[in-house]
Amino acid sequence: MNQKTITRTDLSEAVYQKLGLSRIESSELVETFLNIISDRIVEGESVKLSSFGSFLVRSKNERIGRNPKTGEEVPITPRRVMVFKPSNILKEAVLKGHKK
Fold it and tell me: What is the DSSP letter of 39?
């Protein structure tokens, strides 16, 4: 299994190859797309991309954690976390190990 990480540059290059936009236009398109998604998530909104998945922001309450070395109880402050929930289509594609 290939463990390569896909970067913004890789995404821009893929847009360039598939759509025939210039490299600058492709880069701007990818940056704009990612910025829109990021901005919405930071604002606490959910972002749903059909056939791909959803980015959700969840609030976690304060709780008591434990230091694994000392066993000392430590309070964990309330916080917001982002989670990704893949669509059933994406889950199935990953399970079968092939592209959509």
Answer: H
Tokens found for residue 33: 């797309």
CA distance 92 to 13: 27
Task: Read off the pLDDT of residues 29-86 as tens digits, 9 standing for 90 and up.
Answer: 999 999 999 999 999 999 999 999 999 999 999 999 999 999 999 999 999 999 999 9
Question: Comparing C-alpha atoms, which of 52, 50, 59, 65 is closest to residue 83?
Answer: 59
- Going through the chain in order, the beta strands assigned E by DSSP cover 47-49, 53-60, 63-66, 73-76, 79-86
C-beta separation of 66 from 74 below 8 A? yes
Q: Among 12, 17, 13, which residue's Cα sits nearest to residue 32?
A: 12
Distance from C-alpha of 92 to C-alpha of 51, rounded to nearest angstrom = 11
The SS3 assignment for 22 reads coil
| pTM, entire model | 0.75
| Residues 73 and 65: beta-carbon distance below 8 Å | yes
